[in-house]
Amino acid sequence: MRHVNAIIQWLSKRDRIAVAAMRIAIAIVFLWIGWLKFFPYEADSISPFVANNPVMSHFYRHPDQYKAHLTREGELIPAQRQWQQLNNTYKYSSGLGVVEMSIGFLVLSAFVSDLMGAIGAVLALLTPVVTLSFLVTTPEAWVPALGDAQHGFPYLSGAGRLVLKDVMLLAGALVVLVDSARAISLRPNSVVDQQKALKSVRPIGDASFS
Q1: Spatial separation of the C-alpha atoms in residues 5 and 11, rounded to whole Å
Q2: Which among 71, 81, 117, 168 would be 20 to 30 A from 6, CA to CA?
Q3: Per-residue pLDDT reduced to its tens digit, 30-84
Q4: Which residues pair with 142 in a beta bridge?
Protein backbone atom coordinates (compact mmCIF):
# COMPACT_ATOMS: atom_id res chain seq x y z
CA MET A 1 0.00 0.00 0.00
CA ARG A 2 2.89 2.35 0.72
CA HIS A 3 4.17 1.94 -2.84
CA VAL A 4 0.71 2.55 -4.24
CA ASN A 5 0.42 5.78 -2.26
CA ALA A 6 3.86 6.84 -3.47
CA ILE A 7 2.81 6.28 -7.09
CA ILE A 8 -0.41 8.22 -6.54
CA GLN A 9 1.53 11.11 -4.99
CA TRP A 10 3.96 11.10 -7.91
CA LEU A 11 1.16 11.08 -10.49
CA SER A 12 -0.71 13.86 -8.70
CA LYS A 13 2.17 16.23 -9.45
CA ARG A 14 2.44 15.39 -13.14
CA ASP A 15 -0.48 17.46 -14.42
CA ARG A 16 1.85 19.50 -16.67
CA ILE A 17 3.09 16.33 -18.36
CA ALA A 18 -0.50 15.13 -18.80
CA VAL A 19 -1.63 18.38 -20.44
CA ALA A 20 1.42 18.41 -22.72
CA ALA A 21 0.72 14.81 -23.72
CA MET A 22 -2.89 15.71 -24.48
CA ARG A 23 -1.75 18.64 -26.61
CA ILE A 24 0.67 16.47 -28.58
CA ALA A 25 -1.97 13.75 -29.05
CA ILE A 26 -4.48 16.26 -30.44
CA ALA A 27 -1.85 17.67 -32.79
CA ILE A 28 -0.94 14.18 -34.05
CA VAL A 29 -4.60 13.47 -34.89
CA PHE A 30 -5.04 16.72 -36.81
CA LEU A 31 -1.70 16.54 -38.62
CA TRP A 32 -1.99 12.88 -39.63
CA ILE A 33 -5.65 12.93 -40.64
CA GLY A 34 -5.16 16.31 -42.31
CA TRP A 35 -2.28 14.90 -44.36
CA LEU A 36 -4.42 11.95 -45.45
CA LYS A 37 -7.04 14.35 -46.80
CA PHE A 38 -4.74 14.94 -49.80
CA PHE A 39 -5.17 11.33 -50.94
CA PRO A 40 -8.17 10.14 -53.01
CA TYR A 41 -9.12 7.19 -50.79
CA GLU A 42 -9.59 9.44 -47.75
CA ALA A 43 -11.48 12.02 -49.80
CA ASP A 44 -13.78 9.27 -51.07
CA SER A 45 -14.39 7.94 -47.55
CA ILE A 46 -15.64 11.28 -46.18
CA SER A 47 -18.00 11.92 -49.10
CA PRO A 48 -21.11 10.59 -47.28
CA PHE A 49 -20.50 13.01 -44.41
CA VAL A 50 -19.92 15.97 -46.72
CA ALA A 51 -22.73 15.18 -49.15
CA ASN A 52 -25.34 14.93 -46.38
CA ASN A 53 -24.24 18.02 -44.48
CA PRO A 54 -26.50 21.02 -45.23
CA VAL A 55 -23.51 23.38 -45.42
CA MET A 56 -20.62 21.26 -46.68
CA SER A 57 -22.69 19.70 -49.45
CA HIS A 58 -22.56 23.00 -51.35
CA PHE A 59 -18.86 22.36 -52.02
CA TYR A 60 -19.81 19.29 -54.09
CA ARG A 61 -21.26 19.69 -57.57
CA HIS A 62 -23.51 16.63 -57.32
CA PRO A 63 -23.93 15.75 -53.63
CA ASP A 64 -27.14 13.84 -54.31
CA GLN A 65 -25.32 11.31 -56.50
CA TYR A 66 -22.54 10.25 -54.11
CA LYS A 67 -24.01 6.81 -53.27
CA ALA A 68 -23.64 5.57 -56.83
CA HIS A 69 -19.93 6.38 -56.81
CA LEU A 70 -18.73 5.06 -53.44
CA THR A 71 -15.71 2.76 -53.46
CA ARG A 72 -14.06 0.64 -50.79
CA GLU A 73 -10.72 1.68 -49.31
CA GLY A 74 -7.91 0.27 -51.43
CA GLU A 75 -10.20 -0.13 -54.45
CA LEU A 76 -9.42 1.71 -57.68
CA ILE A 77 -12.20 2.20 -60.24
CA PRO A 78 -11.06 4.79 -62.82
CA ALA A 79 -14.61 5.80 -63.77
CA GLN A 80 -15.54 6.48 -60.14
CA ARG A 81 -12.29 8.32 -59.55
CA GLN A 82 -13.04 10.55 -62.54
CA TRP A 83 -16.55 11.28 -61.26
CA GLN A 84 -15.16 12.25 -57.86
CA GLN A 85 -12.75 14.57 -59.60
CA LEU A 86 -15.59 16.29 -61.45
CA ASN A 87 -17.64 16.40 -58.24
CA ASN A 88 -14.94 18.55 -56.60
CA THR A 89 -14.45 15.82 -53.99
CA TYR A 90 -10.65 15.98 -54.05
CA LYS A 91 -10.28 19.76 -54.09
CA TYR A 92 -12.59 20.09 -51.10
CA SER A 93 -10.75 17.35 -49.24
CA SER A 94 -7.39 19.00 -49.91
CA GLY A 95 -8.71 22.30 -48.59
CA LEU A 96 -9.99 20.52 -45.50
CA GLY A 97 -6.57 18.93 -45.10
CA VAL A 98 -4.90 22.35 -45.08
CA VAL A 99 -7.30 23.52 -42.36
CA GLU A 100 -6.78 20.42 -40.20
CA MET A 101 -3.00 20.52 -40.47
CA SER A 102 -3.04 24.22 -39.63
CA ILE A 103 -5.02 23.44 -36.48
CA GLY A 104 -2.49 20.76 -35.56
CA PHE A 105 0.43 23.18 -35.88
CA LEU A 106 -1.43 25.85 -33.92
CA VAL A 107 -2.11 23.41 -31.08
CA LEU A 108 1.61 22.55 -30.97
CA SER A 109 2.56 26.22 -31.03
CA ALA A 110 1.38 26.48 -27.41
CA PHE A 111 4.87 25.33 -26.41
CA VAL A 112 6.24 28.64 -27.74
CA SER A 113 3.19 30.95 -27.71
CA ASP A 114 0.30 30.78 -25.25
CA LEU A 115 -1.91 32.94 -27.46
CA MET A 116 -1.39 30.91 -30.63
CA GLY A 117 -1.88 27.74 -28.65
CA ALA A 118 -5.18 29.09 -27.33
CA ILE A 119 -6.33 29.84 -30.87
CA GLY A 120 -5.43 26.31 -31.91
CA ALA A 121 -7.29 24.91 -28.90
CA VAL A 122 -10.43 26.87 -29.81
CA LEU A 123 -10.33 25.53 -33.37
CA ALA A 124 -9.65 22.02 -32.10
CA LEU A 125 -12.68 22.38 -29.81
CA LEU A 126 -14.96 23.56 -32.63
CA THR A 127 -13.93 20.78 -35.03
CA PRO A 128 -15.54 17.87 -33.12
CA VAL A 129 -18.66 19.98 -32.61
CA VAL A 130 -19.01 19.93 -36.40
CA THR A 131 -18.07 16.28 -36.86
CA LEU A 132 -20.42 15.07 -34.14
CA SER A 133 -23.27 16.71 -36.06
CA PHE A 134 -22.67 14.02 -38.70
CA LEU A 135 -24.48 11.61 -36.38
CA VAL A 136 -27.61 13.61 -37.15
CA THR A 137 -27.09 14.37 -40.84
CA THR A 138 -25.44 11.19 -42.18
CA PRO A 139 -27.55 8.02 -42.68
CA GLU A 140 -24.39 5.93 -43.02
CA ALA A 141 -23.56 6.69 -39.37
CA TRP A 142 -26.17 4.09 -38.32
CA VAL A 143 -26.56 0.40 -39.08
CA PRO A 144 -28.90 0.03 -42.09
CA ALA A 145 -32.05 -2.06 -41.97
CA LEU A 146 -30.90 -5.11 -43.96
CA GLY A 147 -32.72 -7.80 -42.01
CA ASP A 148 -30.99 -7.79 -38.63
CA ALA A 149 -32.97 -6.68 -35.59
CA GLN A 150 -30.30 -4.17 -34.60
CA HIS A 151 -30.41 -1.20 -36.95
CA GLY A 152 -30.90 2.54 -36.75
CA PHE A 153 -30.51 4.41 -33.45
CA PRO A 154 -28.67 3.61 -31.15
CA TYR A 155 -26.74 1.09 -33.27
CA LEU A 156 -23.77 2.96 -34.69
CA SER A 157 -22.13 1.73 -37.88
CA GLY A 158 -18.37 1.70 -38.34
CA ALA A 159 -18.53 5.29 -39.60
CA GLY A 160 -20.73 6.32 -36.68
CA ARG A 161 -18.42 4.71 -34.13
CA LEU A 162 -15.52 6.61 -35.66
CA VAL A 163 -17.40 9.90 -35.34
CA LEU A 164 -18.45 9.20 -31.75
CA LYS A 165 -14.80 9.05 -30.70
CA ASP A 166 -14.61 12.78 -31.33
CA VAL A 167 -16.28 13.22 -27.94
CA MET A 168 -12.84 12.48 -26.47
CA LEU A 169 -11.26 15.03 -28.82
CA LEU A 170 -13.83 17.58 -27.65
CA ALA A 171 -12.95 16.99 -24.00
CA GLY A 172 -9.22 17.00 -24.69
CA ALA A 173 -9.43 20.28 -26.60
CA LEU A 174 -11.31 21.82 -23.69
CA VAL A 175 -8.52 20.74 -21.32
CA VAL A 176 -5.76 22.35 -23.41
CA LEU A 177 -7.87 25.46 -24.00
CA VAL A 178 -8.32 25.95 -20.25
CA ASP A 179 -4.59 25.40 -19.77
CA SER A 180 -3.73 28.00 -22.42
CA ALA A 181 -6.17 30.49 -20.92
CA ARG A 182 -4.59 29.98 -17.47
CA ALA A 183 -1.12 30.54 -18.91
CA ILE A 184 -2.23 33.75 -20.60
CA SER A 185 -3.90 35.06 -17.45
CA LEU A 186 -0.70 34.49 -15.43
CA ARG A 187 1.50 36.44 -17.81
CA PRO A 188 2.68 39.91 -16.72
CA ASN A 189 0.65 42.69 -18.36
CA SER A 190 -2.10 40.27 -19.31
CA VAL A 191 -5.63 41.54 -19.91
CA VAL A 192 -6.61 40.26 -16.46
CA ASP A 193 -3.74 42.16 -14.81
CA GLN A 194 -4.64 45.34 -16.67
CA GLN A 195 -8.24 45.11 -15.52
CA LYS A 196 -7.14 44.62 -11.92
CA ALA A 197 -4.81 47.60 -12.20
CA LEU A 198 -7.60 49.82 -13.54
CA LYS A 199 -9.89 48.85 -10.66
CA SER A 200 -7.19 49.68 -8.11
CA VAL A 201 -6.73 53.24 -9.40
CA ARG A 202 -9.07 55.75 -7.75
CA PRO A 203 -10.49 58.63 -9.77
CA ILE A 204 -8.63 61.94 -9.25
CA GLY A 205 -11.74 63.60 -7.88
CA ASP A 206 -11.89 61.04 -5.06
CA ALA A 207 -8.43 61.93 -3.73
CA SER A 208 -8.48 63.30 -0.19
CA PHE A 209 -6.14 65.98 1.11
CA SER A 210 -5.20 66.64 4.70
Answers
A1: 10
A2: 168
A3: 999 999 999 999 999 999 999 999 999 999 999 999 999 988 888 999 999 999 9
A4: 156
